[in-house]
Structure formats: structure tokens, C-alpha cells
Design a protein that fits this description.
The protein is built from 5 helices and 8 strands, in the order E-E-H-E-E-H-H-H-E-E-E-E-H. By secondary structure, the chain is an alpha+beta fold.
């Protein structure tokens, strides 16, 4: 299932890099793509704060304006981590060829990719019970 289309100026992998988590999507080139590759240490040094502030702002907006996201004693509330993940979904240099997989779901994010040209599709993969337990598919 295609979750979103990644086009020039889009970033790939920033959520996993900010959270230090495994990727939730695989991204496969629909067309030939030119990419800028930013190693994780450079991302942490230069861009991580920008993405963290963006997510914090989105989280604050959801908490203040969207019913069910506010903090209250009236029932279960979402954790900040859950709201961050929702915010990222709601608000979401090497040549690559058509059908090439840029990143694989379930892998750690060693770098951020920024699409300069071309288009790619982010495909959400739900892990099977076997892969969720850590077994190779």
C-alpha cells in the first residue's frame, strides 16, 4: 500500500533518525532519482534540531486543537511519542534507478535522503509475527 509519494525536496528517514528507531516504510523509486545523502552524524549536527522543533510544534498544535489529543484526567491520553508519530504522518547524492528500493522498512536510519528529482513511493509494511520476533523473512 502506497502511503505517500516522495517528490523533489522531500526527505526520507528523518523520523527514524530523530527517534533512533527502525524505519516504518520502504521507499522504492518510481522513476530514476538523484539524491542528496546526509550521514547520520552530519544530520545530528546540522538538521536534527530543525526536525525536532517541527515535530514539537505539530505535537503542540494537535494537543491544543484536535479533540482526543489534549492532556486531561478524563480518560486515556496519547503519550508524547504517540502524538509525535501521528504528527509526522499527518504533516509527513547518488543516482537511483526506477524500482530501486531506497530504504527498507524495519532497518535503522544511518542517513537522511532528500529527493532532488524524480519520484518515489513510501510503502508501509506491517511486520508479520515472524519478522516482528526478529526472524529474517
Amino acid at each position: 500500500k502506497v502511503a505517500e509519494i516522495v517528490s523533489p525536496g522531500s526527505t526520507v528517514g528523518e523520523d527514524a533518525m530523530v527517534r533512533g528507531a527502525k524505519r516504518s516504510h520502504s521507499v522504492v523509486c518510481d522513476t530514476d532519482c538523484d539524491l542528496v545523502v546526509l550521514p547520520k552524524d552530519e544530520f545530528d549536527r546540522s538538521l536534527k534540531g530543525v526536525f525536532v522543533k517541527r515535530v514539537e510544534g505539530q505535537t503542540k498544535f494537535l494537543r491544543e486543537h484536535v479533540p482526543g489529543f489534549e492532556r486531561s484526567g478524563k480518560g486515556p491520553t496519547l503519550s508524547d511519542s504517540q502524538v509525535h508519530s501521528i504528527a509526522i504522518q499527518w504533516f509527513a547524492d547518488f543516482p537511483s534507478s526506477r524500482h530501486e528500493t531506497l530504504v527498507h522498512a524495519g532497518t535503522m536510519a544511518p542517513r537522511l535522503l532528500i529527493v532532488q528529482s524524480g519520484r518515489a513511493a513510501a510503502v508501509l509494511h506491517r511486520p508479520s509475527a515472524r519478522t516482528a520476533a526478529g526472524d529474517a523473512p
